[in-house]
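Milestone M4 deliverable, item 7.
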Amino acid sequence: MKFTATQIAGLLEGEVEGNPQIAVHKLSKIEEGEKGSLTFLANPKYTSFIYSTKASITIVNRDFIPEQDLSTTLIKVEDAYKSFSKLLEYYNQVKNNKSGIENPTFISESASYGDGFYLGAFSYLGDNVKIGENVKIYPNVYIGDNVTIGNNVIVYAGAKIYSESIVGETCVIHSGAIIGADGFGFTPNEKGEYSKVPQTGNVILEENVDVGAGTTIDRATLGSTILRKGVKLDNQIQIAHNVEIGEHTAIAAQTGIAGSTKIGKYCLIGGQVGIVGHITIGDRVRIQAQSGIGRNVKDDEVLQGSPALNYGDYNKSYVHFKNLPKLVNTITNLEKKVEGE
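Output delivered:
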């Protein structure tokens, strides 16, 4: 699909300087721009590339004044970065604007869906599934019985949503994610053998939640595992049964959260963090990558290490950690000196 400079400027409320009819069909970095591509300049340190880029169209701030001749057509806007982001969003909407039901698929007679629905080949919709409007479900997706999915949701290829799960509006679930698998519930007997504890709850994703590829969110033993609105999960994260994550918290890849832990709002959790079960983490907490959290955490704490310490204390302690061999040698030499006396 091609767009002219005039069409793009109209979408971004921008002003064209150059050829208004030049067309583009792809996006590029400014330093890698090719003919037929669209790029942008927002960071001043990349300014030199605008004079050599082969991109057909470049989005720039209104105050940009070229100091050399340009081969690229400019679209001047108030904020080049925000405008390019808006264009990416529009591009994704166009790219994902599929509709209709491909074959083969299975749709239970009791399932229902709204207008603008797309269902990719080899997908399965179970009994009593309820799907809103403009939902896009890509190939090889499994939707279990009694699942509810709100408007404008995207479920990418190969994702699995187990029975009873509830997915709010504008959520995005990426490939390989599993929503609603059983929690890790087993009880030992006197022989040390394990019996399964039935997991009878569900998973609730409120609106505008993103779930990364390969991430797993377990159903509750009783009640619900809940991700509040605006939560963002990276790839390959494990959320255990009965966990609750507060609004607009973001969690990086390979983090694991054990059962029944409650995490507050607006938290930022780095990659490979391990969080034990049955604790409470407050609002606006920052946890650095590879930390281990084994206690309750108050609002606004910043933590690092395993077990995690206050971030400032960790950095002060690290100065001593890395000097331990020298300190040991110093103490050994002092002991020898004292013994010699």
